[in-house]
Amino acid sequence: MLRIIHAEAGKHIPDAWVVECIGRAADVERDLMKHFAQSHCYRGFPGACCRLDISRSIHAAFRSTEHYRQLEERERRGFEEFMREVFFAQPARQNGRGISFKFGDALEPKFLRNIGFEHLEAAVGATLDVKFPPAKATRKGSGGRARAATLRW
């Protein structure tokens, strides 16, 4: 979404600082939170008080783009269902091993299929300009390698 928002505004996507550390990442995160006097270790996003607020503000900005307005109605409906029923409903989702959903999991191979939302792959793909691997490429023994949805540049 950020790539599309910034491209329409004629802006370069801002640089992101990724901190890699030796030892426990939690210690570095705690130091960042202390340094910036905040309760999280990320900065510079609109609504940056929690990941959910950041996601909501990015989603709102995305919905005002020309790209979003030019989508077919069924694609917009499917994407909004994805955001509402999968992405923002994340605490209610768990995989078969009881591991809770994380924000980045939504574009992982077979994730939407595994939670019964495979019908949304086409709408999400068209809206975010990503490609999901074909169903046969993610089956065991198919000879194809499962890969996360990939951006089309």
Describe it:
With 153 residues, the chain is an all-alpha fold. The chain has a domain at 71-153. It has 7 helices and 2 strands, in the order αααααααββ. The protein has helices at residues 2-8, 25-36, 51-63, 66-69, 73-87, 111-114, 121-128, and strands at residues 130-131, 150-151. A two-stranded antiparallel sheet has the order 1-2. Helix 5 packs across helix 7. The chain is globular, with a radius of gyration of 17 Å.
Identify the notable features of this structure and list them briefly.
two-stranded antiparallel ribbon; 3% strand; disordered C terminus; mainly alpha; globular; 153 residues; 2 strands; single chain
Count of discrete alpha- or pi-helical segments spanning 4 or more residues:
7
Main sheet, how many strands, which sense, barrel? 2 strands, antiparallel
Strand order of the largest sheet: 1-2
Q: What's the Cα radius of gyration?
A: 17 Å
Output mean pLDDT. Answer: 75
CA-to-CA gap between the ends? Answer: 13 Å
Q: Which ranges are low-confidence, i.e. pLDDT below 50, for 5 or more consecutive residues?
A: 141-153
The backbone outline, from C-alpha atoms, is globular
Percent in helix: 40-55%
Total number of strands: 2
Instruction: Determine the strand fraction and express it as a percent band.
Output: under 5%
Q: Strand pairing plus helix content: what structural class?
A: mainly alpha
The helix-strand sequence is: HHHHHHHEE
